[in-house]
Amino acid sequence: MERPTAEVLEDVIDGYFSIDRAAKDYGVVVHEIDAELDEYEIDEGATAREREKIRAERDPWLDADASEVARRYRDGELSVHDVVRQHDVVLDWGTGELLEKSTAQFRDSMRSRSASYWN
Fold first, then answer.
1. Are 50 and 58 spatial neighbours (Cβ–Cβ below 8 Å)?
2. Predicted confidence (pLDDT) per residue in 10-63, tens digit
3. Residue 27: how many CA atoms within 13 Å on its side-chain side?
4. Burial class (CB in 10 A: 0-12, 13-18, 19+), 42
């Protein structure tokens, strides 16, 4: 959430991640003008709103029922990135089975190392 928007834009242009992931992972709303010419623009107003929305949702994501997150992944509602980056859930990626102990350890780590700095 602190990453400069211009750096996120450069990563989109360089193909490190998509416009969609820029919004989901960094809260940066990017509009494509002409992809062949690497012309994109940041929507500053939408970015401010998206970052505020993510800040409000981070704690609930971390507390979401892990088995429900696993079900949403298996149903195709969430991607691997959503499961790991937003909900801090660890699954068997082949079957979508929840790895409860790994999830608990990962979430504990996130709470102690990252979540305390979010607000």
1. no
2. 999 999 999 999 999 999 999 999 989 999 999 999 999 999 999 888 888 889
3. 19
4. middle
